[in-house]
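User: structure tokens for this one?
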Amino acid sequence: MGLFTKKVTEKVANISDNDPTITLDNGDVINVTKTIDCLGFSCPRPQLMTKGAMNDAKSGDIVKIVIDNPTSMESLASMQSELSSIHLGTVFSDQSWKVLLQKN
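Assistant:
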């Protein structure tokens, strides 16, 4: 532990712990496989958590990243090729963004 860091526990929840569906702005309902809770974290922590989750995901899995840091949120969609994924959409609600990525 450094002077300016705090102990962080990994915040990954399976669908049993969270709402398994999310509705996009266009009305499409998406079934989520895994949720990554990045609330309160800033760069690069959300990107690293997302990268780890996408590495563990199977083809076709949909990962929802819940994030409240605008800079981190914007970078997730641009990471889709690095993560072997497709950006399905981003929804803003409850003071946070829900970014949906599907593993190729």
